[in-house]
């Protein structure tokens, strides 16, 4: 299991394969979990979710950005997506990776790009979530978030429960909107829990701490054990349903997504789209080895 996960994490970081994948279109089963390569195809998926009482957080996929030109192009794509959300009247917000808009190029350049995005989103009353990446980018991501929170209230980020520092980060962001996840990257034992049991225990611990803080919380998991525990906790502690939502990835456990929405829980689906789908898809295969069957079936059907 560990070797399989490491293998797909390594593939996700392969820039040559990522570049090639842009020419393939959505192959290897990716069309099951990526909502198209352009705004129109993605919007069709978002409208279908909305019709079932489910919101969307949209990710215009992009990785391996090491030049200002690439970062500026990504920023324009994000601004175009924001405009499409506004014009088409869908229930959606956006999730953005800072490396996509220049964090690996220049910190101040990235901050200015992010400020422009958050400002545009504020005009449309759209929330911007800063996706958390690997540990090497974590502190810079937090620094940029805290800078933006001095000016805007429509921006938040992700807390990864496999990191030892996450409880302290919760304390420092009590009023911000946050998404809680287990974590999708491979980190060393010096900074993160390594066993599933420890990660799950800390995830539930952080959720309980967070639900008693003032900020809105997105609980992102496909784990029905965690979901059941959250339901029990909010019921016993009389936590209003308007204070939190559940989130899952596009294409995963779709029946459960609809069931939770039908039960009256706020629900949002993470909707990735774009030509730069390869790294995202490899990380999904790394997280859930059973997803490999989906890829194999797709290849055979071709």
UniProtKB/TrEMBL annotation:
InterPro entries given in the database record: FAD-linked_oxidoreductase-like, PRODH_bac_arc, Proline_DH_dom, Proline_oxidase
Domain (Proline dehydrogenase): residue spans on this chain: 43-287
First-tier enzyme category under EC: oxidoreductase
Known EC number: 1.5.5.2
Cofactor(s) this protein requires: FAD
Amino-acid positions noted as binding FAD in the UniProt annotation, renumbered to this chain: 132, 160, 182-184, 196, 221-222
Binding site for substrate: 97, 283-284
A family per Pfam: Pro_dh
Protein's recorded name: proline dehydrogenase
Swiss-Prot/TrEMBL catalytic activity: L-proline + a quinone = (S)-1-pyrroline-5-carboxylate + a quinol + H(+)
Keywords recorded for this protein, A-Z: FAD, Flavoprotein, Nucleotide-binding, Oxidoreductase, Proline metabolism
Organism per entry: Planococcus glaciei
Record-level Gene Ontology MF annotations: nucleotide binding; proline dehydrogenase activity
Pathway note: Amino-acid degradation; L-proline degradation into L-glutamate; L-glutamate from L-proline: step 1/2
GO terms under biological process: L-proline catabolic process to L-glutamate
Cofactor binding comment, as recorded: Binds 1 FAD per subunit.
Keyword Glycoprotein: no
């Amino acid at each position: 299991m560990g070797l399989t996960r490491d293998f797909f994490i390594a593939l996700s970081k392969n820039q040559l394969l990522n570049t090639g994948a842009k020419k393939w279109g959505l192959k290897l089963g990716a069309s099951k979990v990526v909502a198209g390569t352009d705004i129109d195809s993605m919007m069709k998926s978002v409208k279908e979710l909305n019709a079932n009482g489910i919101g969307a957080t949209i990710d215009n996929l992009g990785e391996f950005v090491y030049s200002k030109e690439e970062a500026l192009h990504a920023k324009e794509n994000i601004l175009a997506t924001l405009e499409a959300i506004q014009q088409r009247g869908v229930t959606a917000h956006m999730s953005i990776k800072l490396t996509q808009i220049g964090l690996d190029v220049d910190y101040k350049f990235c901050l200015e790009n992010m400020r422009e995005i958050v400002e545009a989103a504020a005009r449309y009353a759209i929330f911007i979530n800063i996706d958390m990446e690997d540990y090497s980018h974590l502190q810079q991501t937090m620094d940029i978030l805290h800078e933006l929170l001095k000016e805007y209230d429509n921006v938040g980020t992700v807390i990864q429960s496999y990191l030892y520092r996450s409880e302290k980060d919760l304390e420092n962001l009590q009023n911000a909107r946050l998404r809680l996840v287990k974590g999708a990257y491979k980190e060393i034992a010096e900074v993160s829990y390594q066993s599933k049991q420890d990660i799950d225990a800390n995830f539930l611990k952080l959720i309980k701490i967070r639900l008693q803080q003032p900020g809105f919380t997105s609980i992102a998991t496909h784990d029905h054990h965690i979901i059941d525990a959250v339901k029990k906790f909010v019921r016993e502690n009389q936590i209003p349903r308007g204070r939190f939502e559940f989130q899952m990835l596009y294409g995963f456990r779709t029946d459960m997504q609809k069931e939770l929405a039908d039960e009256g829980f706020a629900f949002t689906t993470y909707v990735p789209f774009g030509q730069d789908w390869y790294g995202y898809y490899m990380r999904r295969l790394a997280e859930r080895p059973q997803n490999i069957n989906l890829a194999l079936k797709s290849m055979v059907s071709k």
